[in-house]
Amino acid sequence: MTRLLPTPSQTVGPYLSIGLPWPDGPHVVPEGTPGAFWIRGTVRDGNGDPVPDAMIETWQADPDGGFRHPDDPRGAAKGEFRGFGRCPTETDGTYGILTLLPGAVPGEGGATQARHIDVSVFARGLLHRVVTRIYFEDQDNAGDAVLATVPEERRSTLIAAKTGDGYRFDVRLQGDGETVFFRV
Amino acid sequence: MATPTEFRLPRYGEDPDGTHPPLDSGGYRSTALRHPKQDLVLLPQMLTEVTGPLLGPGRLGEHDNDLTRQHAGEPQGQRIIVTGRLLDGEGRPVRDSLVEIWQANAGGRYRHTGDRWPSPLDPNFDGVGRTLTDSDGRYTFTTIKPGAYPWKNHDNAWRPAHIHFSVFGSAFTQRLVTQMYFPDDPLFSQDPIFNSIPDEKARQRMVSRYDHDVTQAEWALGFQFDIVLRGRDASVFEEEEDEDE
Fold it and tell me: Is there a contact between B101 and A19 if contact means CB atoms under 8 Å apart?
């Protein structure tokens, strides 16, 4: 088969908020869904200043660990769970995603991964998205193979802290406490 | 008791070196405080990475693929048709997939509160479009050719005319946001965003192609812009199958 060469990435620029946000973007599940909680956080730059023109996107399994997708070899999950969230940051750099706790998902070699959400961060000044993962501080993260590859002193940047209405997950693009970003 | 079973997952290859811009790209000043300085950690492609949102017709409004028909009147400027195919690296069409665009108006002004340079807004142009690819991976928008606009990155800096594209593909690994440019733009040479792509040939893959067959007589000029996402091949890994499932 012909091998085609990929299209390069470019920044979303400063005006992504006219094109990408959706009214229900932050709602992975509708408001009022039993068990739903907010993941909230602030995106900051190398000076620690809030980034007001970023966008967070999330992708995750449903509460049973399934994906509504044909490439899930266990069979595409049934139901309406969108699995996807999208929220631009406000002028103070904050975002929020309303979702449900993802179920455990199989990993490599028969292992089970800790509950996690994949995250893309887009912004002016980011020529390519950066990718990270959210884990949850009140879940069992001990055996997770991905976390184990992250230097121990940086692991905490991937673990969302429990709050009153959900969890807190801040993103530091650069500098002290820089978030761990992944190559996928 | 769990029994090992084989589990086939697609695998997405790495794009060739020089395809994507380095996050630390000195000519584009906004990268200075926003690029991570620590090394990226390899994330193996597992279920979360090889799946992704399949966003369908529920995301579309009636005139979302025709940016010239979203208001009572017609926008100012050169009417154009932008069409192309969303493909993976093996040339397979990515079907029924959401394509989102946003852009400046004919005078180079975005309908955004942060864009204050002295060029008028157009009351008949929002500069936002969405559509789904068809069974051949094809998308088509009717819009207005965006103008170039100044920015403060360097002395007398101007962005070449461009349309922002956001595509999902079939998997988290394939998510891509890019910009489509127009052929022979004299502003390319001084634009650090366009030139952030190390490989000159890769850079040219962001430039659309004028296509007279797409051009509609007495109506609109036609441009072709294919978007190629990461290719996939199959790999195998094992997992324990729960007996109670």
Answer: yes
Helix, strand, coil: what percent of chain A each, to 5?
A: 10, 30, 60
ipTM: 0.97
Domain spans of chain A, in order of start: 16-172
Write the DSSP symbol of residue B48.
H
**Residue B210 designated active-site:** no
User: Is residue B42 one of the residues assigned to a domain?
Assistant: no
Query: pTM for the whole thing?
Result: 0.95
Per-residue model confidence as pLDDT tens digits over B35-60: 999 999 999 999 999 999 999 888 89
Query: Active site includes B71?
Result: no
In chain A, which residue ranges form alpha helices assigned H by DSSP? 16-19, 145-149
Q: What are the start-end ranges of the E strands in chain A? A: 37-44, 54-60, 84-88, 94-99, 105-106, 112-113, 117-123, 130-136, 159-163, 166-168, 171-172, 182-183
CATH superfamily of A16-172: Aromatic compound dioxygenase (2.60.130.10)
Angle at B170 between CA B165 and CA B172, to 5 degrees: 80
Task: Check CB contact of A157 with chain B, cutoff 8 Å.
Answer: no
Task: Answer whether A61 touches B (CB < 8 Å).
Answer: yes
